Amino acid sequence: MVAGSGTKSDPWQLHTAPGTSAYTMYRDETADPPTLVCQVGTTTLRYHLRAVDDLHAWLREQGDWVPLGAADEKKAAADGTVEAWGRAEDNPVGGWYGLRNGYRGRFGMYLPPLLEALGLVELTHDARNNQVRAR
Fold this sequence. Notes:
- This protein is α+β, with helices and mostly antiparallel strands.
- It has one domain.
- It is built from three helices and seven strands, in the order ββββαβααββ.
- The chain has helices spanning about 50-60, 80-85, 105-115, and strands at about 10-15, 20-30, 35-40, 45-50, 65, 120-125, 130-135.
- The strands form two sheets. Strands 1-2-3-4 form a four-stranded antiparallel sheet, covered by helices on one side. A three-stranded antiparallel sheet has the order 5-7-6.
């Protein structure tokens, strides 16, 4: 179970898959488009809110473990990873789920722990090369 209710005043309290970094996320359904706001220290990242349902559906289609493959926006994402899908032209939003130019990457870092906290996926918690699969 996750701490927080996912609102701005009570954000979800999360940790990256290796457990090395804490961050918060909350839903902003009044934004256009509706947004997931991710606060990592002083950095704010924004993703399409629909990423939660879309990523879960994609992981169910994969049927097995998928590497996270987290990468910054300016770095290429490894094929077949959550990160690559989060910026692929054939995903449901037709490209980047990240909404803030210059900070659109790291989808594979910050979305899977939220899905795990919401009970939608299983996530490995190794020091490196973590993977995720749908429940």
